[in-house]
Structures are given as structure tokens and as C-alpha cells.
Design goal:
GO terms for molecular function: metal ion binding; oxidoreductase activity. It comes from Aulographum hederae CBS 113979. Belongs to the iron/ascorbate-dependent oxidoreductase family. The protein is α+β, with helices and mostly antiparallel strands. It is built from eight helices and 15 strands. The strands form three sheets. An eight-stranded mixed sheet has the order 2-3-11-8-13-6-5-4. A five-stranded mixed sheet has the order 1-10-9-12-7, with no helix packed on it. Bound molecules: 2-oxoglutaric acid (AKG) and fe (ii) ion. Fe (ii) ion binds next to loops.
């Protein structure tokens, strides 16, 4: 059963983004309280007042639609299989079925395009063979009528990275930490990545084990998702174990916590299970941004999240170890088939 999403709060974070209200302590405290409540219950909320320009959001959506509507041969000019270093970079276009996010289901009915911070081939993460890292692949804008693709996507990457740092500050405050507690986590935005996604309509007679995106939790710290007006994102309600559909709100971000946040908070905050079915009968587009910080940043329960007498539920690990393991699983389950 899927119910509507009044459970997922819509929070105006402008007291943290708009200089006009940013010295109003009461408004800021109210935002922190609402965010905390959402993190404790669903690990999902939506935000408005985020400051990312709506014309940039529209442009990124329309570039994404133009890209995915190209013939497969054109999309394959920037195929993930051509990314360098070979086999180790996840920058570029991935075909329908490249990922299987839920074990035991068919490969996901979605195609994607991964774009990260612009890094050169001699960047230290690339030289060290860190998984997923390589230079971006850019389509030929003139030939494929994608003028502005690179500029707008990089602009978007910069804006959403800035927003992520602000939301991490709100999260730090919600955990009774200094506002700048997580600042070191994303000193350099190499790891944070945009994923353009396209979901064809879910076939009416599809087998039971077909998903747009299979049930999963997100790998990193926090995800900022733009979804179009069609809906289709579902979040598991941890109490009733029913699926809640996340209603699209124009220009709002769906924000959800990833596994690193659940570990930091010793399970107080939830990295919640979610999935996608595009039952709209139309082409669905969404744009997640995965805010995964510096690879060597330690991930272990934070002292304020472990009460006296309580045990830390997780060993110390790093962002790199967490990402390697989860990425490996999501792509490996296909390779094994
Ligand atoms: O497309 C969506 O609405 C969600 C995608 C998602 O959950 C993911 O890529 O991790
Ligand atoms: Fe996700």
C-alpha cells in the first residue's frame, strides 16, 4: 500500500540562506527543530527557501531531457565504459539496467549520467586509483544540440555543493554540535556527484520484480533530489512498514540522510529505505546529488549521540570504505548475471 506524503515535512530553510532573516535566532532554531524531527522519524524531508535559482534548475532539467532523448549511439559517445581510468571511474552515461539497487530484483528500469567536480587525470584521487574518480565526460554540445550543458551542470554542482554545506550545518546544530562540526567533511567537493536520471514508463504488465529504482538506502551523508511533477518516489515508513509516496513540490528538494549519517548518529537518525516506480505512463526525470565528503573522513558514532552506558553500534570506518563497498554491490549484482 502507498499513502500520500503528509508525513514528509516541507521545511523553509531561508533563515539559513537568506541574509534578510539570517540573524533571527528564533527562526533558525525552529528550522533546526523541524529538521531534527524529520531525521528522527523518516530520515526524509523537503526544503524550500534553499537559494538555488529556479531558472538554473529548469535549465538542468531541460538539458537532461534533451540528453536522454538522443539516440543511444550519441549517448554512448560519453558511455561510462569509456570513462578513464578504465573500469575505475563512474563518470558518464550508464544504460538502462546498469544498476540493481535491490538484491534479487531485475536491473533498474532507469538510465543515468554521472557528473562530478571537474578534476584532471593527474588528480591525486585518480592517481591513487580511488574508486569512481576520473575526469568528467562531456557530450559534444554543438553536434548534439546541447548548448550550455557543461557550463550549467558545473554551475549547478557548485550551487548545490554550497547548499549541502549549509544543510550540514543545520544537521550539526540539530545534534547539539558546533555549527561547523562537519565543515571538514567536504573541504573539497571531489566526491559529491550529480546523477541525471531518466525513468521510462513502468510497463503495465511488468513482472513483480521490476523496479524503476529498487529499494535501497543512500550510501553517503546526505542526498538532495529534484524530482519532476510525476511522482514515483516512495519511502518506507519505519513504523507501519508501508510505503509513503513523496509528493512533488515545484522547486523543492527532497533531502534524505545516507548511511554515513546513520552511523554518525548511532542510529538516532535514519538512513531510510526508498525506491521508485514510474507509474505515470510518461517519461520521468529526477536529479539526485549525492553529498559524499572527503574519502578519509572518519565515520563513527559521534560522542553526543552515544548516551552514557550506551554502546557505540558501529566501528570506525571511512567514507572511502563505505562507498567502495556499496558501489561494488550495486554494480556487481549485474556483472554476476
Ligand atoms: O529518482 C528518484 O526519485 C530517486 C533516486 C534515488 O533514490 C537514487 O538514485 O539514489
Ligand atoms: Fe536513493
Amino acid at each position: 500500500m502507498v499513502s500520500a506524503s503528509k508525513e514528509i515535512s516541507l521545511i523553509d530553510i531561508s533563515p539559513f540562506t537568506d541574509p534578510k532573516s539570517s540573524n533571527n535566532a528564533a527562526l533558525r532554531a525552529d528550522v533546526v527543530k523541524q529538521v531534527k524531527q524529520s531525521c528522527l522519524t523518516h530520515g526524509f524531508f523537503q526544503i524550500l527557501g534553499h537559494g538555488v535559482p529556479s531558472d538554473l534548475i529548469s535549465s538542468v532539467f531541460s538539458l537532461s531531457k534533451r540528453f536522454f532523448s538522443l539516440p543511444i549511439e550519441d549517448k554512448n559517445t560519453v558511455s561510462l565504459t569509456k570513462a578513464v581510468p578504465k573500469g575505475n571511474s563512474n563518470r558518464g552515461f550508464e544504460i538502462i539496467g546498469a544498476q540493481t539497487l535491490e538484491k534479487g530484483t531485475q536491473p533498474d528500469l532507469k538510465e543515468g549520467f554521472n557528473i562530478g567536480h571537474e578534476i584532471p587525470l593527474d588528480h591525486e584521487y585518480v592517481r591513487q586509483g580511488k574508486f569512481g574518480h576520473g575526469p568528467n565526460q562531456w557530450p559534444d554540445e554543438e553536434k548534439l544540440s546541447l548548448q550550455g550543458f557543461r557550463k550549467d551542470l558545473l554551475d549547478y554542482h557548485r550551487r548545490i555543493t554550497e547548499l549541502s554545506a549549509i544543510v550540514m550545518r543545520i544537521l550539526a546544530l540539530s545534534l547539539d554540535l558546533e555549527e561547523d562540526y562537519f565543515d571538514g567533511f567536504c573541504k573539497e567537493p571531489e566526491v559529491a556527484a550529480i546523477k541525471l536520471l531518466h525513468y521510462p514508463p513502468h510497463p503495465v504488465n511488468a513482472a513483480d520484480d521490476l523496479r524503476g529504482a529498487g529499494a535501497h538506502t543512500d550510501f553517503g551523508a546526505i542526498t538532495f533530489l529534484l524530482q519532476d511533477s510525476l511522482g514515483g518516489l516512495e519511502v518506507l515508513d519505519p513504523h507501519s512498514k508501508t510505503w509513503i509516496s513523496v509528493s512533488p513540490v515545484p522547486n523543492a528538494y527532497v533531502v534524505n540522510l545516507g548511511d554515513a549519517m546513520q552511523r554518525w548518529t548511532n542510529d538516532r537518525y535514519i538512513s531510510n529505505v526508498h525506491r521508485v516506480f514510474n507509474r505515470s505512463g510518461k517519461e520521468r526525470y529526477s536529479i539526485p546529488f549525492f553529498y559524499d565528503g572527503n574519502l578519509d573522513f572518519p565515520i563513527e558514532p559521534i560522542a553526543t549521540c552515544v548516551a552514557e552506558g550506551e554502546k557505540a553500534r558501529y566501528e570506525r570506518t571511512t567514507m572511502e570504505e563505505m562507498l567502495n563497498q556499496r558501489f561494488g554491490q550495486a554494480y556487481k549484482s549485474n556483472a554476476e548475471k
